[in-house]
Structure formats: structure tokens, C-alpha cells
Amino acid sequence: MYADNLxxxxxxxxxxxxxxxxxxxxxxxxxxxxxxxxxxRIADITDLIAKESDDTDQLLAxxxxxxxxxxxxxxxxxxxxxxxxxxxLIESLTExxxxxxxxxxxxLAARLRDEIGDLKKELRSMDDAGVK
Length: 132
What we know:
Elements: H1 8-31, H2 42-66, E1 72-75, E2 79-82, H3 83-102, H4 106-129
Antiparallel strand pairs: 1-2
């Protein structure tokens, strides 16, 4: 806290924080706990996004070889989506995911990754069903 004067409410808040900290340190010492901060490397996140991106590229390349439009699939809000449009949507979302990751917007990139995964499941089920 930054202030020129220490008010009674500030003193009570600081005292409570110190009391809780002492209690936690005592608990940790009694049980031999050495708390460590959570460290997740950005490389781990970008590796997952790159892996999803590569999988998308492979799936779309295979789908374009065998795609000729045709029947559709119901995606999310029960809207029929032809296979070609589904592939284009996956491609577009993958590009957005890559851009988000490059701009360090990892939460958005992760949400896009999850959405792409769902759409790719639909596309693979169409392939398994023989939909062209």
C-alpha cells in the first residue's frame, strides 16, 4: 500500500495479511511443504497451438483432395454446413488462432483451438460416413 498516512483500516488490513501469512508459513513448516509458483512456459502453449495448426493443415489437405461439396453436417446451432464451407471455416479459424498466438493472446488462441477441434471432429465424422 502506498500512502502518506497509515489509517486505522489500512493498519488492520496489513495486520490481518501478516497474521494469515504467519499462519500459512507455520502450516507449511510443520508439514514440510515448500510452495512453488506455477510456471507454465509460453513454449508449451505455442507448441500446442502449432500442433493443432499442423493437424488442421493435414486434415484440410486430405479433405480438399476428396471434397466435391455435397451433403452438409449440423454444426453447433443446428445449421447445415456443407463440407467445403466447413473446411473453409476451419482454415479461417486456424489462421485467427495463429495470429492470436503471435500477438500473445493465448486465451483467445486456446478458445479458437478448442472450437477448431470440435469442427475437425465433425469433418472427420463426415469423412468416416463417406460424405463428399
